[in-house]
């Protein structure tokens, strides 16, 4: 009996040692991509690590459509310094661990020059170490978490860039809109406790809103994948807020809005770009969404001619489908990268990242674009209002 | 009035747990198997209901009926293909098979239609909120509670007043003796799976209408909660599953009501642990000997 036990311990030790060795091996292949950059012949390979399936597939698929359109346009106009762009798409299944795998695949097997995506912050954070180790430039179209470009130690991550504005900025915009445009003095926050994105927005909203003289009367949280919010909404209703800020992703927010309106909560509701999906309207229902606002990177009914051209090209390619914010950001990410590649001259990773960091006043669909020292863009934010289930341009707020 | 509102919230949630828990408890009662694929039958029911409403254009009751019928057939298939060959195997083998079947259904569904969520169309049932003494009640929750209670009453009738029900009770009491008395044990077990799965299918449609969002992995958490509810009431005991489901729903709502909404799922499993330590046979485990 004793012998068997010893043998068992020995076996399990062997097993775990084997597993560790396996992990080490995986890491090695991950960093082996360094130096192996560049393109073969006349094409520049760009990786797209996107949420093509899973819970936030709507963002990844939308960004992918924007990327495809931009690449098609650039190649039609002669490519970049004579070279055509080639996109390699990998599905990260809306899962951070899969996002890491996708990044390993793109950097070590496909040897791409740059990666666009993923669309959500958690998934981008999961690939950032691999990208940095292999000196591959990453541009996330819509990952708004601050830590994507600036590490916990406060140092800027050299190879990480983004096309969208950052979390605190969205929370700040929402708070300013609530206290200055809607003139409310007390608000409630109902945030997704499992997402860095929602927590970042909530913190910035609270800071700016209380700074404007407002009062937070209720602060509640939920966890992604919840379906029943009635109990917590009953508590919020009892606090009687004039405004409810709900940072989170569309899957839960849609249900929250529906259940809130069913329970007789009539206050204006507002959230960030995580709301931007047609699924939100399906889940919440058109009526429930009246008196709800969201922050967006762009509005398709914005009268700006640059936006009008983009909408026209997009509708022509995708049989009349009107582009959403993620489409626009995916599209802009390619142009942001293309501009950097042009100025870098060749495909040396260091030159590319320096060129991207120096981007200034680049006219893009989601606004005139300047990169600050923390690799965040400085540009305007758009406030949209839901009317009968469709988003209408309501206001533009400058930084 | 907030507390009354919270209890009403809890009862709506609990009646869905109860419907799923009934299937768990019936199957356990008859072949002593925790059918972990039960939560996924619930998911299949939600999707059948969704497609019959959106694609075939059925209204609520026909969709509910269709989901129940398809889930009943599905449940019998699962039993015949996966569990019947293991009838005389060890219980752990059957349990592991159940987990395998569960994963197979979940990822099979993702393979067939993808992982993206689907929204039940609005307006299948009239949704109207009204206030009584400061408590907001939605017409949908009343109808859902009504359908759940009606299904439970029909189930009680089947188990206690019909020949099949009598056979089910006999097999659960002693399968060998029942076989000697001329009862077709295999058919009776299939009937139990059919009824349990039909209830799960109904719960799926009700869940879809009430909570709108459905997706291929939606069965996991409600399935586990329903398992807790079944154990809470005393596994193998039908009224126990109903009460267990309702109690669990109300407990979860009250946990959120005092401001610990993030602890809600944790509390459900703490309840399971406490029951297993202090009253392993469940709330109803002692006096009622009739098991199905």
Automatic annotation (TrEMBL), chain A:
GO terms for biological process: amino acid transport. InterPro entries: BCAA_transport (IPR051010), Leu-bd (IPR028081), Leu_Ile_Val-bd (IPR000709), Peripla_BP_I (IPR028082). SUPFAM superfamilies: Periplasmic binding protein-like I (SSF53822). It holds the Pfam family Peripla_BP_6. Residues 1-21 form the signal peptide. It comes from the Bacteria. Keywords: Amino-acid transport, Receptor, Signal, Transport. Residues 43-389 form the Leucine-binding protein domain. Gene3D superfamilies: 3.40.50.2300. PANTHER family: LEUCINE-SPECIFIC-BINDING PROTEIN, PERIPLASMIC BINDING PROTEIN OF ABC TRANSPORTER FOR NATURAL AMINO ACIDS. Belongs to the leucine-binding protein family. This is Ligand-binding protein, receptor family. It comes from Aneurinibacillus aneurinilyticus ATCC 12856. The lineage of its organism: Bacteria, Bacillati, Bacillota, Bacilli, Bacillales.
From TrEMBL, chain B:
GO terms for molecular function: L-isoleucine transmembrane transporter activity; L-leucine transmembrane transporter activity; L-phenylalanine transmembrane transporter activity; L-valine transmembrane transporter activity. The keyword Magnesium does not apply. It is found in: Cell membrane. The chain crosses the membrane at residues 7-31, 51-78, 90-112, 132-159, 189-212, 224-250, 262-279. Its main location: membrane. It is a multi-pass membrane protein. GO terms for biological process: D-alanine transmembrane transport; L-alanine transport; L-isoleucine import across plasma membrane. GO terms for cellular component: plasma membrane. The keyword Chloroplast does not apply. Keywords: Amino-acid transport, Cell inner membrane, Cell membrane, Membrane, Transmembrane, Transmembrane helix, Transport. It holds the Pfam family BPD_transp_2. Belongs to the binding-protein-dependent transport system permease family. LivHM subfamily. PANTHER family: BRANCHED-CHAIN AMINO ACID TRANSPORT SYSTEM PERMEASE PROTEIN LIVH, HIGH-AFFINITY BRANCHED-CHAIN AMINO ACID TRANSPORT SYSTEM PERMEASE PROTEIN LIVH. This is Branched-chain amino acid ABC transporter, permease protein. It comes from Aneurinibacillus aneurinilyticus ATCC 12856.
């Amino acid at each position: 009996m004793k012998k068997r036990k010893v043998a068992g311990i020995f076996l399990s030790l062997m097993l775990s040692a084997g597993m560790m060795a396996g992990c080490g091996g995986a890491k090695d292949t991950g960093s082996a991509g360094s130096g192996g950059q560049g393109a073969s012949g006349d094409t520049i390979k760009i990786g797209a690590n996107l949420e093509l399936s899973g819970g936030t597939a709507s963002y990844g698929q939308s960004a992918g459509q924007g990327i495809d359109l931009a690449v098609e346009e650039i190649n039609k106009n002669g490519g970049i310094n004579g070279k055509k762009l080639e996109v390699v798409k990998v599905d990260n299944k809306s899962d951070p661990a899969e996002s890491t795998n996708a990044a390993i695949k793109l950097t070590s097997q496909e040897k791409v020059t740059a990666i666009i995506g993923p669309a959500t912050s958690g998934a981008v954070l999961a690939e950032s170490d691999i990208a940095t180790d292999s000196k591959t430039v990453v541009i996330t179209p819509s990952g708004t978490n601050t830590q994507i470009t600036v590490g916990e130690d406060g140092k800027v991550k050299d190879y990480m860039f983004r096309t969208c504005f950052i979390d605190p900025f969205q929370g700040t915009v929402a708070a300013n809109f609530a206290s200055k445009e809607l003139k409310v003095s007390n608000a409630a926050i109902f945030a997704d406790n499992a997402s860095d994105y929602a927590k970042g927005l909530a913190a910035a909203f609270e800071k700016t809103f209380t700074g404007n003289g407002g009062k937070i009367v209720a602060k509640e949280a939920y966890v992604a994948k919840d379906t029943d919010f009635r109990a917590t909404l009953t508590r919020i209703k009892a606090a009687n807020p004039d405004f409810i800020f709900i940072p989170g992703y569309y899957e839960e927010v849609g249900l929250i809005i529906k259940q809130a309106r069913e329970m007789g909560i009539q206050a204006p509701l507002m959230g960030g770009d995580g709301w931007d999906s047609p699924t939100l309207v399906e889940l919440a229902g058109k009526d429930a969404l009246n008196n709800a606002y969201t922050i967006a990177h762009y509005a398709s009914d914005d009268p700006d001619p640059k936006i009008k051209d983009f909408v026209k090209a997009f509708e022509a390619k995708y049989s009349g489908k009107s582009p959403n914010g993620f489409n626009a950001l995916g599209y802009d990410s390619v142009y942001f990268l293309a501009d950097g590649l042009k100025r870098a001259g060749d495909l040396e990773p260091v030159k590319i990242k320096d060129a991207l960091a120096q981007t200034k006043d680049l006219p893009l669909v989601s606004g005139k674009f300047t990169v600050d020292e923390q690799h965040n863009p400085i540009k305007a934010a758009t406030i949209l209002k839901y009317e009968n289930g469709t988003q209408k341009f309501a206001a533009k707020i400058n930084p | 009035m907030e507390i009354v509102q919270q209890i009403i919230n809890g009862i709506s949630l609990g009646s869905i747990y109860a419907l799923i828990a009934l299937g768990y408890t019936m199957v356990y009662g008859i072949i002593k198997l925790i059918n972990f694929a039960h939560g996924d039958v619930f998911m299949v029911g939600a999707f059948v209901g969704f497609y019959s409403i959106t694609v075939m254009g059925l209204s609520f009751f026909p969709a509910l009926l269709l989901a129940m019928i398809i889930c009943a057939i599905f449940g019998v298939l699962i039993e015949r293909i996966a569990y019947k060959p293991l009838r005389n195997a060890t219980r752990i083998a059957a349990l592991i098979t159940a987990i395998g079947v569960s994963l197979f259904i979940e990822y099979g569904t993702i393979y067939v239609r993808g992982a993206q969520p689907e929204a039940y169309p609005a307006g299948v049932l009239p949704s109207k909120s009204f206030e009584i003494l400061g408590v907001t009640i939605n017409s949908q929750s009343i109808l859902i509670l009504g359908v759940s209670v009606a299904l439970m009453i029909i189930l009680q009738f089947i188990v206690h007043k019909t020949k099949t029900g009598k056979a089910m009770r006999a097999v659960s009491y002693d399968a060998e003796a029942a076989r000697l008395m001329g009862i077709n044990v295999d058919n009776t077990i299939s009937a139990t799976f059919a009824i349990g799965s039909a209830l799960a299918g109904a719960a799926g449609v009700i869940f879809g209408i009430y909570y709108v969002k459905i997706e291929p992995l939606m069965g996991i958490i409600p399935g586990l909660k329903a398992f807790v509810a079944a154990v809470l009431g005393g596994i193998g005991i039908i009224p126990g599953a109903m009460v267990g489901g309702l109690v669990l729903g109300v407990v979860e709502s009250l946990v959120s009501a005092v401001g610990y909404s993030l602890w809600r799922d944790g509390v459900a499993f703490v309840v399971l642990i406490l029951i297993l330590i202090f009253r392993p046979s469940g709330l109803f485990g002692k006096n009622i000997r009739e098991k199905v």
